[in-house]
Amino acid sequence: MVKFCSFKENWAARDTIEVAQDLLGKLLVRKLDSQNLLVSQIVETEAYLGVEDPACHSFGGRKTPRTQVMFENPGTCYVYFIYGMYHCLNLVTGNGEAVLIRALAPLTGFASDDFKNKSLSGPGKLCRRLAIDKNFNGSNLLSTKEDLFIADPQETEHLLHKDFHAGPRVGIDSAGDAAHWPLRFGLKDSPYLSRPKF
DNA sequence: AGCCCGATGTCCT
DNA sequence: GGACATCGGGCTA
Length: 198
Description:
DNA-binding; 2 helices; 3-methyladenine DNA Glycosylase, Chain A
């Protein structure tokens, strides 16, 4: 069994790029029911830099029913619905900034198919597989009491050589200059990246 | 009220 | 590489 411990309350209250990089290798834990605990490792993230980032939902200080959670406490969960059929999971870092969780590696609790099917390699796919929807919007992603949370692995062997790629974010084409900002991060050589190329 | 398009994924050629 | 499914959010009016 994978052991984990919780983060400090202010773990996410840091520079968003730093949090996005630091999330690589951390655990995402999903409790479906008392029998079913899915533990995965975060292998790919993207940083969204708030009101000054044209690709960010809160760009220009937009405060709407959708984006309001991006301005809540660091550690808050932001889930949005996209393309009429997918959800995407984010960790709020405050001030309208957030980190998108783009890909996971299965660790424990998963079906053997999940280890070959790439069912966690993409922001929409991982939410579908983990049954994440807007019910989690606004929840506390740093609390181990929740049914969905991020935690620190006790056995840090995967983290010792945490080399990662950085590259442009996916699906950001019409954001001008910001389309090229290297704000996508992925663990090097992970077979579970949403796309191997950076 | 209406319009456009998107932080995606899948299937096709 | 390109089409497209499918619908809520945000902007215009």
